[in-house]
Design brief:
- It is globular, with a radius of gyration of 12 Å.
- The chain has a 5-stranded mixed sheet with strand order 2-1-5-3-4, covered by helices on one side.
- The protein is an alpha+beta fold.
- The longest helix has 12 residues.
- It has a domain of 33 residues.
- It contains 1 helix and 5 strands; from the N terminus they run ββαβββ.
- The protein is 14% helix and 33% strand.
Length: 85
Amino acid sequence: MLVPLHGFLRGDTVGLLLLVHDTDRLDHVARTLIDAAAVRVAPPAHARLYSGGVELPLDATVASAGLTPLARVDLIPDGERRGES
C-alpha cells in the first residue's frame, strides 16, 4: 500500500511529499528524500531519520516503524543534533 509521508531534510527550505510503500525499508525512504532534495541541498554522507523526535532504525519498514499516512519524517545529517537549527 502506498503511504504518503511529509519529508524534511535539514538544510532544505522545502518540505517534500514522499510516496513510499508500507513494505519499503526506511533506508529507502531516507534515500528517496535525499534524492528529491538534491537539487537544493548537497546530499549528506550519513544521516539519521526521525519521526516525532524519535530516531527510527533504517532497517525497519514503514509499517513496522508505525508510520501512518502524512506522518512527518526528518532526516538529520550525522554531526547535527535533532534540536539544532
